[in-house]
Each structure stands twice: as C-alpha cells, then as structure tokens.
Design a protein that fits this description.
Chains A, B: Its cofactor is pyridoxal 5'-phosphate. Chains A, B: This is Branched-chain-amino-acid aminotransferase. Chains A, B: GO terms for molecular function: L-isoleucine-2-oxoglutarate transaminase activity; L-leucine-2-oxoglutarate transaminase activity; L-valine-2-oxoglutarate transaminase activity. Chains A, B: It catalyses: L-valine + 2-oxoglutarate = 3-methyl-2-oxobutanoate + L-glutamate; L-leucine + 2-oxoglutarate = 4-methyl-2-oxopentanoate + L-glutamate; L-isoleucine + 2-oxoglutarate = (S)-3-methyl-2-oxopentanoate + L-glutamate. Two copies of one chain form a homodimer. The first copy, chain A, is of the alpha+beta class and 355 residues long. Chain A has two domains: 2-169, Aminotransferase class 4, branched-chain amino acid transferase, N-terminal domain (D-amino Acid Aminotransferase, Chain A, domain 1, 2-Layer Sandwich); 177-341, D-amino Acid Aminotransferase, subunit A, domain 2 (D-amino Acid Aminotransferase, Chain A, domain 2, Alpha-Beta Barrel). Chain A has helices at 65-69, 92-105, 113-126, 199-214, 260-271, 283-292, 329-341; strands at 10-11, 36-43, 46-47, 51-54, 58-60, 72-74, 77-81, 87-90, 138-147, 160-169, 177-181, 219-221, 230-231, 238-243, 246-249, 275-278, 281-282, 295-302, 306-315, 318-321, 352-354. In chain A, 52% of the residues are buried. Chains A and B meet through strand 5, helix 1, strand 9, strand 10 and helix 4 of A and strand 5, helix 1, strand 9, strand 10 and helix 4 of B. Strand 5 (58-60) of chain A pairs antiparallel with strand 5 of chain B. The structure holds pyridoxal-5'-phosphate (PLP) (2 copies). Residues 76, 197, 233, 236-238, 257, 259-262, 301-303 of chain A line the site of one pyridoxal-5'-phosphate (PLP). One pyridoxal-5'-phosphate binds next to helix 5 and strand 18 of chain A.
Chain lengths: 355, 355
C-alpha cells in the first residue's frame, strides 16, 4: 500500500449548491447526489493526489477495462446527524475492510485507510448541510472503484479510479415484500465472487429478479447453486428466519456477502437474550415450519433497507403467507439498531464513529 | 425491438488519421484502436440515431449503473482482408445472436440486427485502410453495451450505450501455454451468467489467474463449481482434448460460453473424418490418459487466439507435460480455419460474409 498525505486533499468547491432544488421529504433511493464527490486515481502503481470537487460527469476511454471486463467494486454505508448536529458513521472500519477484501478478489489495488476514511469524512463535512436529521433520514454513502485503464486485452487494469458519492436517503419503505425462493437461477458460485461487493454480482440478478417481479414477488431469496436446498441471501440483504423463538441465518461463505447489518443484528439479538443460530438453513425446514406454524418471521437486513419484513414466500409454485405478529424480533431489532445509529440510545457496542 | 433507419448512420470523420503512427508489425493485442467508433444510445425505451465518429473519450455520470451494478456485455469478432482487398467477416450472425442472448440475461435491451450489422460494416468500410492483409493479420472487432443510466438503486438501467471499436491484430502468439486445473476457484455458477459474455465474468477470473501465473501457468482451466470434477473452459477459450484419435470437448451449458470457434472446429473436424465426442470430460480421465499415454493433445479455441496449443497441465500439484506430436489436430484445424477465414481456401461451410 502506498501512502499519500491525505491531510492535503485538494478541495474545489462548487460555485452554487443544488440543495435548494431537493425535496427532502420525497426522496427516492439513490437518484439525488450532493454537490461534491471525492476522487482519487491509481496510476503507475500508486494512489495519486486525492481531490474533492463538484459532482459532474467525467471522461472515460471507450476501451476502459471496467466496460469490458467488469473490474468494479463498491460499498454502501450511512451517516446520521444527531440533535447536536454531529454526524456519525456506523462501523465504517467494517466497510473499509470489506472494500479491500473485494478489491483483492477482483485483482484491484487496495485503497489506503487514510484515503478511504479521510475522503469520506471531509466530503461529509463539506456537504454537511445535506445530512438531514431525524425521522429515518440519513446520508447514503457510496465508495466505489472502477478500472479506468484502456485496452481490450482480458487482464487486470493498471489504472483505477476510487470515488465516493453521497446521496441523501429517507427511511426506506420497500412496501410489502413477497419473495420467491430460487429454484433454478443463482447469484454466486463456489469459488466465485459472491462474497465480494463486485458490480457484476448485481447485474447477474436483474433478469431472474425481473421474472420474479412479473409473478408479483419483489425479491428473490437465493439458494446454493449446486443443490438449491440452502437459503442464502436476497439481492442486497442477508436474511433471517425466526422459527419458534430461534433466529436463524446462514453462515457467511464464499457465496454470501458478510453483511454488517447482519452481524450487528446477530450481536444485538444475542445481547437481548434471543437465541440465535447461525447455520445452513434448508428450504425444506422453512417449508415445514411454514406448514406447522412454527415459522414466525422472515426479514432481510442491509444498509439500504435496514430491516425489511418479508410477508410471504413462494416455493415450487406454493405461496406461504406469514401471519403478522406483535413484538416481532424484526421490529424490536430495527428499533434498537436505528436508535443506536441515530444516537437516540446509547451505543453499548462502540459501533458509532463521529465524523 | 425498435426499428431505426440505419442507412442513415450519421458519419463524422476524423480530421486526421492516426494510422501513420502505428507499427503494424509489432502490435500488442487490444491496445491500438482505429480512427473511428460506432455508437448508438438507448433512451426512452428506444434506440436513438446511430453515429460513427472519431474515437475519443466520452462523458459518464459517476453514478452510471455500469460502474455500480455491472450491466455490461461484449462480443469479439474478426475481419480479414483478402488479396482483392475485399473485407470478410466470419459468422457475424453468430456473434449477433450471442450478443442479444447476453443482453437478455443481463436485463439489457436487445440491439436490432441492422444497427449491429450496418454499424460494423460501415465502420469497417470507413477504417478499411486499417485492415491489414496476409500473415495472420486481422481486424479485431469489439461490439459492447454498457448501462449509462444514473442512480445507485440496484435495478436495471433505463439507458444504455452500444458501441463498436476496431483494433488491428497480428497472429496471436501466446507463447507456451501451461495451464492449471481449477481445484477451488471457479468462473460460473449453475443458474448464473457463465454462458453470457458479461463483463463481470472476466474480472472474476483475474485473481485466480494471477495466482496461477505466479506458479508459472498462463491460464486456468475452469471446472464445474460444485464438484470440480468436470473440465469446462479457459479464460477466453473453449478447450479440446485429444485422447487417442478422439477429440473431446465439454457440451455448452449455462456455465460455458458457446464459442463460435469451438462450434466451427467441431464441424470442420467432423468433415475431416475426425471422431468428435461432445460430452462432459472428467479431470480424472484427463489425468488417467496423461498417465497411460493416450492423451495426445490439448488446445484452446477462441476468436482472439484462434487455436492455442496447451503444452501441459497441473492438477493436485502434479505437472503433466504433453509430448509434441506431428500432424496434430490443432495444427490441421488451425490451418483449415484460418485459410477459410482469410479466403485462401474455399469456404465450403458458407461461414464468411463480405463487408
Ligand atoms: C448481496 C448483499 N447482501 C447483503 C447485503 C447487506 O450488507 P450490509 O448490511 O453490510 O449493508 C448487501 C449490501 O448492502 C448486499 O449487497
Ligand atoms: C469465456 C469464453 N470462452 C470461450 C470463448 C471463445 O468464443 P469464440 O470462439 O466465439 O471467440 C470466449 C471468447 O472469446 C470466451 O470469452
């Protein structure tokens, strides 16, 4: 890893702010960006001088490797503003580590910690007016890296661009989520890149997800590609199943993203005295539990959606609808987590980091 | 599919040509591009007016879906100039069909045939001075499509760019190719996107290929991800094995690219009276055949490398070196194929198409 004096991030300020055009009460996820972005190029084996500058399109060569061979990774994280107008990050060290794990798997250079962390902190400070307070508001943060080297030889690029974008977000309301359990399609191979936040993993899911949408399901729950018997995760969420009073979720593996919401919920649930069992969860047990009434809840967990209740699932053309329950684990855990993230409750875990 | 009057491709010519700066005798694969490129945008549910214009970088929004979710596909084809200065394509209809199959799998719009075909023909005509004659020279053609829509919501883009680039190529000399048989990593999942020419499939292979390179192997032969017992394909080539006088190659599947060189060689070999067996080929048979001396040849087949002889393979830390043979199937088939493509011999299969 090369070192760079990031206390020297060059800052070019936008001449005017777009903030007055933004309707913060009616935000859609991911289509409004703040006035600035952070950028750092990798060239000649080294990270170059980082810069914060006005958000704007940039020039790419048509033969750039990202277009042809898909070297592209990203992270998704959130910042929250508390009542004192302080801005907080949630476990940013976990995103940083995962980003560099993804980089390694995609044969891309690691980003030095001071570039990643200083970049996002200074960017948040500059655009701090965009970070809204209260009521589920947050700033979605999108660090990403793409291969910018030119040439269509199928090998790793020698030039990259690391960027951070900020997009203000409201409490994510995904509507009623019904899911389809994958019987044919899959998102990850053994020995593949499923555990990396690699761009290509997501495009691969769009077609099967479109098919599910047409049948009235908003998401697919992926199963292992070899046997389709084990429940793995959803598009951008890990999944939890409550059978009687035990919370089940699949162990992470090469095929499953090691979600930060997932691992936080596991710790929180345990500290609440909930019995958590991290082990392969079979489709057959789920169906069985749905039939005999022991299946109490299903929910997804991820940065964007936080905790998303799943209302029912379909498997082999049979739809199993969940019976809504009081005091669900989903609602308890969601409240605990968001209160901690928003600094409404105390952070007993030491997960929040001040910007 | 929308229709467009592509006889009306707008053409903006470069003011000067870069051709005089190109050393055609010392070309590296894929790093020199001709003066022009073809471009057509998809917007508002329709393909827009196609254009041929000077090769140049273009503007992309930092939140473009291709950067974040990897919607990107491509094709690889070649054009050849014969002694009458006519330019010929090899089975372009196959590339066109495969391109749209890839598009469907990646939830991208199909490209209309007249845009794809007229685009590449008119581009080749405009840059025809760049298409060199003889001695293994060809023009490598790279049609590709990327998602240009802005926004970081994980769903398909509603805007795309289809482009064609041209890169002059010499006979591809890959050096001595030793391969490693994959025991842990893999390139494709059952129910995944291995059969699509999706950008993300290639980046996924770079890291394991780098590891193989470090051990002295140029390529990896991928095996099925569930059991690692079946031989599938290499990075950008399908693979053939000759055991005694039978030529073996894996059947295409969801995990394997349906290579045009592969299917052409199968037909040619059959018409030569060679016994071809398309069936799953086990790693264990390969090892067994290498040990008992019945393994005569291994070679890869693909547009870029044409036919590439594999000198030896490693499996479970044992290296098996091939004994070079006279009149190999690889050399016979390569000669037949390249003579047909270059219009040196007659095209009994009807595979060549004049530009
Ligand atoms: C495939 C996938 N699984 C799970 C998650 C949840 O991870 P996290 O809780 O770290 O956001 C994500 C991402 O956001 C994801 O992309
Ligand atoms: C993964 C893969 N396999 C095989 C091939 C060979 O296909 P073709 O002969 O059509 O070039 C290619 C591409 O060029 C490829 O990318």
């Amino acid at each position: 890893m090369s070192t760079t004096q990031t206390n020297k991030i060059e800052i070019i300020k936008a001449s005017t702010s777009k903030i007055k055009d933004v309707d913060f009460d009616n935000l859609h996820f991911g289509d409004v960006f703040t006035d600035h972005l952070f950028e750092c190029d990798f060239k000649n084996g080294e990270w170059q001088k980082p810069i914060i500058k006005p958000y704007a399109p940039f020039l790419m060569d048509p033969s750039s490797k990202v277009f042809h061979y898909g070297q592209a990774i990203f992270e998704g994280m959130k910042a929250y503003k508390d009542d004192n107008n302080d801005i907080w990050l949630f476990r940013p060290d976990e995103n940083f580590k995962r980003f560099n794990n993804s980089a390694t798997r995609m044969a891309m250079p690691e980003v030095p910690e001071e570039i990643f962390m200083e970049g996002l902190k200074q960017l948040l400070q500059l655009d701090e007016a965009w970070v809204q307070k209260g009521n589920g508001s947050s700033m979605y943060i999108r660090p990403f890296m793409i291969a910018t080297g030119a040439g269509v030889m199928a090998n790793p690029s020698d030039e990259y661009k690391f960027m951070i974008l900020l997009s203000p977000a409201k409490a994510y309301y995904s509507g009623e989520v019904k899911v389809l359990i994958a019987e044919h399609f899959s998102r990850a191979a053994n020995g593949g890149i499923g555990a990396a936040k690699a761009a290509g993993n997501y495009a691969a899911q769009f077609y099967p997800t479109n098919l599910a949408n047409k049948e009235g399901f908003q998401q697919v729950i992926w199963t292992d590609d070899a046997t389709h018997t084990k429940l793995e995760e959803a598009g951008t969420m890990n999944v939890f199943f409550r059978i009687n009073n035990t919370l089940l979720t699949a162990p992470t593996s090469e095929r499953i993203l090691d979600g930060i919401t997932r691992k936080s919920l596991i710790e929180m649930a345990k500290s609440e005295g909930i019995n958590v069992d991290v082990r392969p969860v079979l489709v057959s047990e789920l169906v069985e539990a749905a039939k005999n009434g022991s299946l109490k809840e299903i929910f997804g967990a991820g940065t964007a959606a936080v905790v998303s209740v799943i209302k029912g699932f379909s498997y082999q053309d049979v739809y199993y609808e969940m019976t809504p329950i009081e005091n669900s684990y989903a609602s308890q855990l969601k409240e605990k987590l968001t209160n901690l993230q928003n600094k409404i409750s105390e952070d007993a875990f030491g997960w929040t980091v001040k910007v």
